[in-house]
Amino acid sequence: MARITHFDMSGDQPEKLIPFYEKIFKWKFDKWNSPGMEYWMITTGPDDKPGINGGLGKRETDSSIVNTIEVDNIDETLKQIEKNGGKVLMQKVPIPEVGWWATFQDPQQNVMSVMQPDPKAK
Predict the structure, then answer these.
(1) What DSSP assignment string belongs to 44-82?
(2) Torsion, CA 105, CA 107, CA 110, CA 112, rounded to 10
């Protein structure tokens, strides 16, 4: 079975997205040393926990990938998204017996989702 092991995000000014994701999700960004390439490796958490890491580069196409980010408190996260220049596209909705899910757009129009696990969600 294949699993997602990396994700790519992009922005017209990718370096301006770094503080947004660092502040809200505590992600770590490391500039990739490749001549002529504006790209950062993203560490989203410790290697011994489930999840994927990714990368951030200069937007070259209109395509986007929506990934889900697990959070402890979806309500607080949505507030932080709006406070830091993002936009909530879809308020939280229950996924019965799984958790609460919402979508947002970051300051450079990348669409992502957040999920708060909650087996009691209905």
Answers:
(1) -S-TTSS--EEEEEE--SS-----EEE-S-HHHHHHHHH
(2) -40
Instruction: Dig out the tokens for 121 from the structure.
Output: 């969600």
Give, in words, the CATH class of 6-117.
alpha beta
CA distance 88 to 54: 22
The pTM score is 0.80
Q: Where are the domains of the chain?
A: 6-117
Longest dimension (CA), the chain: 50
- pLDDT, tens digit, 9 for 90 and up, residues 11-59: 999 999 999 999 999 999 999 887 778 899 999 999 999 999 999 998 8
Interhelix angle 18-25/74-83, rounded to 10 degrees, is 150
